[in-house]
Description:
The chain has 12 helices and 15 strands. The model has no long low-confidence stretch (mean pLDDT 90). The protein is an alpha/beta fold. The chain is 36% helix and 19% strand. It has helices at residues 16-22, 36-40, 45-55, 58-74, 106-110, 134-139, 154-166, 180-186, 189-204, 279-287, 289-292, 297-308; strands spanning 3-6, 25-27, 80-85, 88-93, 100-102, 115-117, 123-125, 146-148, 207-208, 222-225, 232-238, 243-245, 255-260, 264-266, 274-276. Strands 7-4-3-1-8 form a 5-stranded mixed β-sheet, with helices on both faces.
Amino acid sequence: xxxxxxxxxxxxxxxxxxxxxxxxxxxxxxxxxxxxxxxxxxxxxxxxxxxxxxxxxxxxxxxxxxxxxxxxxxxxxxxxxxxxxxxxxxxxxxxxxxxxxxxxxxxxxxxxxxxxxxxxxxxxxxxxxxxxxxxxxxxxxxxxxxxxxxxxxxxxxxxxxxxxxxxxxxxxxxxxxxxxxxxxxxxxxxxxxxxxxxxxxxxxxxxxxxxxxxxxxxxxxxxxxxxxxxxxxxxxxxxxxxxxxxxxxxxxxxxxxxxxxxxxxxxxxxxxxxxxxxxxxxxxxxxxxxxxxxxxxxxxxxxxxxxxxxxx
Length: 312
């Protein structure tokens, strides 16, 4: 079982309503340059591939073949697909009757949505960021039109959620592993910021200045203050494998605290005012009794899932 995400923004506009109406997943590379008669022949996959190789070149062809082949070959019965429209996410499960087809009709062509995976049933889920695991939320930021989400915990979360939405029992016996990696997979970027700030409060007594959370700054998420001496503290949290360059932070007038769950902070050791919070220590803090009275509901939701399975 694998989990996929579908970007519903082909070149001619957002096609999510078309997918929902027809209970399909649909992507582009629709061979609009061909006549209707020629496109009718592309209902056969081998003919479609031959035509695509004639029309698309370079990176466009490479991406076309990757995404269309995923619909035809790689996405299997029992897999799950996510798509997103605004703040609402949609989830479907692929079944034995689902199959690739090339639909050359006028509506599909206009929406650049002729490559389709049929026989899906989409269920809406989530209206706010805290409903959605961080790895799923960020999977829609960039990448190919069709892309697998291979993060720890997402498969089980998705299967358990689908059963809840659809009233099925496909995920019976599955549990979410209580582990640091899974925990950070579930957290959103803002969850990580909150976790770092609350840990700093509990450990050092630093207090967040609310107005700084609304500031648009590239270097830091928000500003805290040390109530004992009035010192300023700047925080940066990354729930990713990014490398953070410490040098630009040297000009900030105070301490700097970093959290990177999978990446590194380059050259932080050169600056005595810079500190790196250990993801393992913050994970232990999140599980502690002290944190139970501090953490926002969004983080508590994922901790509950880790501890006791899906009980939402």
